[in-house]
Amino acid sequence: MPEEQVFDLIKDNKELSSLPQVLAEVIRITADENASAKDLANVIMKDPALTARMLRIVNSPFYGPAREISTVNQAVITLGIRAVKALALSTGLYKMYEGSTLVVDRMRFWRHSLETAIACREIAKLCAYRPEEEAFVAGLMHDLGVLTLEANYPDQFKRVWKLVESGENLVKLEEATWGTNHARVGKFLLDQWKLPKFIGEAIAAHHGQFTEDSLPTDRLGRIVSLGNMLSKFRTCQVPPLEKADLEKIDILAESLEIGPTVLAELQERILGLLIKESEFLEMDIGSITDLLESANSLLYKQYILVESVLRENRQMQAQIARDQMKKAALDSLKTITATLSHYINNASATILGRAQLVELAIAKKTIIDGENMAGNSMEIIIKSVETISLVLEELKKMSSFDTTQYHDETSILDIEDRLKAQIAEIEEERKAASEILR
User: Fold this and answer.
1) Rounded to an integer, what distance in angstroms lies between the CA atom of residue 262 and that of residue 269?
2) Are 171 and 209 in contact, with CB atoms under 8 Å apart?
3) Beta-carbon-side half-sphere exposure of residue 71 (alpha carbons within 13 Å)
4) Are the C-beta atoms of 223 and 48 separated by less than 8 Å?
5) What CATH architecture does domain 3-286 belong to?
6) In this predicted structure, what is the pLDDT of residue 405?
7) Residues 87, 57: contact at Cβ < 8 Å?
8) pLDDT in the model for residue 404
9) For residue 149, which of 5, 39, 280, 31 has the smallest C-alpha distance?
10) What's the rounded Cα separation, in Å, for the pair 280 and 75?
11) Which residues of 351-377 are buried (b: 16+ CB within 10 A; e: fewer)?
12) What is the rounded distance in angstroms from the CA atom of residue 327 to the CA atom of residue 338?
């Protein structure tokens, strides 16, 4: 299915392609540099439910105001325009999708979305990205494309989600089914809502296969991708992070100048922040018991994964130890061969020298050998010594082989053929030399 066909269907779905009027006006006002706190307060007050929630939030222990705040205008001044925008979108979107098709577990969806938003905001603080509320909004909205596909393609989505829950890759299934994925669908949706384009672009990139050489140039895209990967509570069942995922986290964190220790401390803080912020935003992400059970389940999966990695590490170490022993044995063989070759060579050279002298004396009649017994014996001795010398030369070559060559069966079998050929060649030379002497 062409991606454009999916986008056309979403565009025709007015319930999704158009934000509620108040939220649309909040976005418009907060994008206007000339807008005031009063302008934003006037928009929020058009929605009684949003007004009541905003006042509850600003007076909650999370913010701990010095005095009670009784008006939306005071709330906007206290929190700041961008923070109010983040809160308005958080609560407004939560309500907006509350009653839609429920293939995706909404509690788990918002738990993951809010955890990602919090992670993105905290990452933004660590790498001095401003305004940090933008990172929160991008993190909160990063998976809205999932709910959009669910609403527009309920039957197909149900089949896809069933496969996802069994452990298959969501993005690959989306690409195969619709020719696009929820990250790009989310960007298209935000474009329809007239949100800043850089937020949509950051969301579109959050499933990118980043490497050190292919990182997005904008920091917000990296922040959203990292925040999503740091989220422990997922919307669907997914296997534990693999080596490639962990490498991607390291690459993203390093690109944002966040060290391993600081990153670990951030991960420790996220769960506590998630529980607190879900309470004052009045978002149902499950009870503390639910969260702890999920956290324990995740911890157990991580334990199993670590145990598996340790087992593989032990097996690898054992293999390395065996390989090292083989190498040590080969090195010892090389040393022994070289030493033996040295002594046998010396002895062979001495025997050969003496035999050649005797042979020469017989040829010159200095030694009388009537029945040629000594001559025959000298030939045998010399031939044998020369054979020994050839074997020693091959041993020397073998002792210089690397491990791979040493275990090359073809190379070893060639040795015998080479020796036979060289011995035959020497024998021919000796016959020719004997004829000349006679």
Assistant:
1) 11
2) no
3) 8
4) no
5) Orthogonal Bundle (1.10)
6) 47
7) yes
8) 45
9) 5
10) 14
11) ebeebeebbeebeeeeeebeeeebbee
12) 16
The pLDDT > 70 percentage for the chain reads 69
Spatial separation of the C-alpha atoms in residues 356 and 383, rounded to whole Å: 11
Three-state secondary structure string covering the chain: CCHHHHHHHHHHCHHHHCCCHHHHHHHHHHHCCCCCHHHHHHHHCCCHHHHHHHHHHHCCCCCCCCCCCCCHHHHHHHHCHHHHHHHHHHHHHHHHCCCCCCCCCHHHHHHHHHHHHHHHHHHHHHCCCCCHHHHHHHHHHCCHHHHHHHHHCHHHHHHHHHHHHCCCCHHHHHHHHHCCCHHHHHHHHHHHCCCCHHHHHHHHCCCCCCCCCCCCCCHHHHHHHHHHHHCCCCCCCCCCCCHHHHHHHHHHHHHCCCCHHHHHHHHHHHHHHHHHHHHHCCCCCCCHHHHHHHHHHHHHHHHHHHHHHHHHHHHHHHHHHHHHHHHHHHHHHHHHHHHHHHHHHHHHHHHHHHHHHHHHHHHCCCCCCCCCHHHHHHHHHHHHHHHHHHHHHHHHHHHCCCHHHHCCHHHHHHHHHHHHHHHHHHHHHHHHHHHHHC
Q: How many CB atoms lie within 10 A of CB 241?
A: 15
Q: Which amino acid is at 237?
A: Q
The first and second tokens of residue 169, run together, are 């890759």
Q: 110: how many CB neighbours lie within 10 A of its CB?
A: 25
> Residue 361 is encoded by which pair of tokens?
């004396």
Q: At CA 356, angle to CA 354 and CA 360, rounded to 5?
A: 120
Domain assignments of the chain as residue spans, ordered by start: 3-286, 310-437
* Cβ proximity of 187 and 148 under 8 Å: no
With contact defined as beta carbons under 8 Å apart, do 218 and 201 qualify?
yes
Which residues, in sequence order, are CB contacts of 131 under 8 Å at separation 6+?
A: 82
Residue 80 tokens, joined: 């700041």
Q: What span, in angstroms and rounded, lies between the C-alpha atoms of 421 and 416? A: 9
Low-confidence ranges of the chain (pLDDT < 50): 403-408, 437
